């Protein structure tokens, strides 16, 4: 390679390394700002499958407000679309789903919160009169744990009332902050 | 490439013994062959494999020692490894060891992907998984374009294809946005004048077209696939006549046209349930197409077309046998008539060939 090509190659490599580092940095900054400034809510966790709650090194978290019946979705929504779920707090840590909309709704007071979700699966009932229903994913369904700690937390999930501590941003994005058992933090992590 | 050199070496011996070329000529030809690029060669291939292994090693090492490190330390380690790969690449390029340099770039892109996944794990991010692959692919494409690294571009296309297939699977619908990055990577391959890359693009697009057919099979998907194949083949043949300067592209296009048309016809015959009349028409068309590919392979001296024709013919025959087995009388009649048709074609081709040779001798 000639000298000129060499120096442009250095520049190219530095730009690539720089941009890729910025992407990683942006991911971290996005999370850290959400975790530190987002509204903190607690939501009760239901074990998805008590016998097989750990796959690898993460806990699968099911949430009371989405488990059970199929969720009614706005008309025309398809799998993979982004929607907004409006939650209402009935009692501490107990949130119920008030409705799902295609556009972000306004919240009325502290008893409500909006979570951004992706439609995991959408389908229409057999009769044409039935609305579109489906399942949602909020991006807070996996809690990664250090190797070996899985069984300890699994036991606590089975024996105690577990709540996930979430940080919710004004745009509806949610991040997992930690886990609580009977009001006590059992897993808490620093921002950095 | 090696087999080609060995073949030429043998031929050179023969031609020299026959007195058609002298020793100096043979030496010059051998030197020319040796000086031409031998692709990436064994050391390069091993270096690239090593890069892939190092990428995996980073993922599992950091993952295994996760809980003993603070988040700041983990982030520092991740970024440090990323930069180390590119500094290594720079050092390799500087020494003129370009293949090793490209391997280091590939390792850098692998570490970039590992970093994304580990940050996701660190902050329990469980969003739309294909989005993560898309970011990874975009970073890799950037590396491929700026550093002009063919292996990184190829890796980017693989990642974009994983993203596209994942989105397709989630939606169970054709995912058109895939065509945007596909076109970008293909343009980069063309800009680099890298033929294997252009072929990779062709394969990816073929996969997309076939996926389209499969998803829309109830509403004429396979018919559309067949039609697209015919159009690609016809346009390529036309291009070969009108713009012979770009022969390599047109000849490639003819192969893809053949492959896609055959895949469409094949699916129409065996994945749908056509009436007997329609099945016979499709079977005859498919067999004619494979014979056409064999003819083209021989006429244009294109061994890829020849093999595709043979393979397609065998596949077609095998599946007809599978479909008609049980009605032994039916299949024996079919094979007998197919045998007669092909024997007739062979005789016709032989006559044509003999006549052309006779003409050449006369002229």
Description:
The complex is a heterodimer of chains A (192) and B (363). Chain A is an alpha+beta fold. Helices cover 23% and strands 41% of the residues of chain A. Chain A has one domain (38-188). Chain A has helices spanning 3-37, 150-159; strands at residues 39-47, 54-55, 58-63, 71-72, 82-91, 94-101, 112-124, 132-137, 142-144, 162-168, 174-181, 184-188. In chain A, strands 1, 2, 3, 9, 10, 11 and 12 form a seven-stranded antiparallel beta sheet that branches. In chain A, strand 7 (112-124) and strand 8 form a beta hairpin. The longest helix of chain A has 35 residues, at 3-37. The radius of gyration of chain A is 21 Å and the shape is globular. The N and C termini of chain A lie far apart (42 Å). The mean pLDDT of chain A is 81. With 363 residues, chain B is mainly alpha-helical. The radius of gyration of chain B is 26 Å and the shape is flat. Chain B has helices at 2-17, 23-35, 41-64, 71-94, 98-122, 129-146, 150-171, 179-192, 195-215, 221-242, 247-270, 276-299, 303-324, 328-362. Among the domains of chain B are: 1-38; 247-354. The longest helix of chain B has 35 residues, at 328-362.
Give the key terms.
heterodimer; A: 192 residues; alpha+beta; five-stranded antiparallel sheet; 12 strands; globular; B: 363 residues
Biggest interface, residues from each chain: A-B, 41 and 47 residues
Low confidence ranges of chain B: none
Count of the domains of chain A: 1
- Which stretches of chain A are poorly predicted, pLDDT < 50 over at least 5 residues? none
What is the straight-line distance between the termini of chain B?
36 Å
What assembly state would you assign to the polypeptide chains in this entry? Answer: heterodimer
Residue-averaged pLDDT of chain B: 84
Overall mean confidence score, pLDDT of chain A = 81
């Amino acid at each position: 390679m000639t000298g000129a090509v060499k120096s442009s190659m250095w520049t190219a490599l530095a730009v690539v390394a720089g941009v890729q580092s910025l992407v990683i940095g942006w991911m971290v900054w996005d999370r850290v700002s959400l975790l530190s400034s987002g509204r903190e809510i607690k939501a009760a966790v239901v074990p998805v499958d008590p016998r097989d709650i750990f796959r690898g090194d993460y806990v699968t978290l099911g949430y009371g407000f989405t488990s059970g019946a199929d969720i009614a979705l706005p008309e025309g929504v398809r799998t993979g679309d982004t929607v907004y779920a409006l939650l209402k707090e009935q009692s501490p840590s107990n949130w119920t789903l008030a409705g799902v909309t295609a556009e972000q709704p306004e919240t009325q007071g502290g008893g409500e919160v909006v979570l951004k979700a992706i439609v995991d699966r959408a389908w229409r009932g057999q009769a044409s009169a039935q609305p579109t229903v489906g399942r949602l994913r909020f991006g807070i369904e996996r809690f990664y744990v250090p190797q070996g700690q899985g069984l300890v937390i699994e036991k606590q999930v089975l024996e105690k009332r577990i709540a996930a501590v979430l940080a919710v941003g004004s745009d509806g994005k949610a991040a997992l902050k930690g886990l609580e058992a009977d009001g006590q933090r059992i897993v808490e992590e620093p921002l950095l | 490439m090696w087999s080609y050199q060995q073949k030429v070496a043998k031929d050179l011996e023969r031609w020299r013994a026959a007195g058609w070329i002298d020793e100096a000529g043979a030496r010059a030809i051998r030197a020319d062959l040796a000086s031409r690029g031998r692709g990436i060669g064994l050391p390069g291939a091993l270096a690239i494999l090593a890069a892939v292994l190092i990428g995996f090693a980073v993922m599992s090492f950091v993952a295994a020692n996760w809980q003993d490190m603070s988040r700041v330390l983990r982030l520092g380690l991740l970024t440090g490894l990323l930069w180390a790969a590119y500094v290594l690449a720079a050092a390799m390029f500087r020494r003129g060891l370009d293949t090793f340099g490209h391997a280091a770039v590939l390792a850098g892109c692998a570490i970039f992907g590992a970093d994304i996944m580990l940050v996701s794990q660190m902050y329990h991010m469980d969003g739309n998984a294909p989005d993560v692959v898309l970011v990874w692919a975009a970073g890799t494409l950037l590396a491929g374009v700026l550093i002009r690294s063919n292996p990184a571009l190829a890796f980017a296309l693989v990642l974009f294809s994983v993203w596209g297939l994942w989105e397709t699977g989630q939606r169970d619908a054709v995912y058109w946005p895939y065509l945007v990055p596909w076109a970008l990577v293909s343009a980069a391959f063309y800009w680099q004048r890298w033929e294997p890359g252009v072929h990779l693009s062709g394969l990816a697009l073929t996969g997309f077209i076939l996926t389209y057919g499969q998803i829309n099979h109830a509403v004429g998907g396979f018919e559309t696939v067949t039609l697209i194949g015919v159009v690609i083949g016809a346009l390529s043949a036309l291009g070969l006549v009108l713009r012979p300067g770009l022969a390599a592209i047109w000849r490639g296009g003819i192969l893809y046209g053949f492959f896609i048309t055959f895949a469409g016809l094949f699916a129409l015959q065996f994945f749908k349930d056509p009436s007997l009349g329609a099945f016979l028409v499709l079977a005859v068309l498919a067999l004619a197409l494979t014979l056409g590919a064999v003819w083209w392979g021989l006429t244009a001296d294109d061994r890829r077309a020849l093999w595709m024709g043979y393979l397609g013919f065998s596949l077609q025959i095998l599946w007809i046998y599978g479909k008609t087995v049980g009605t032994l009388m039916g299949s024996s009649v079919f094979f007998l008539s197919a045998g007669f048709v092909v024997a007739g074609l062979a005789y016709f081709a032989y006559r044509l060939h003999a006549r052309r040779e006779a003409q050449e001798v006369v002229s």
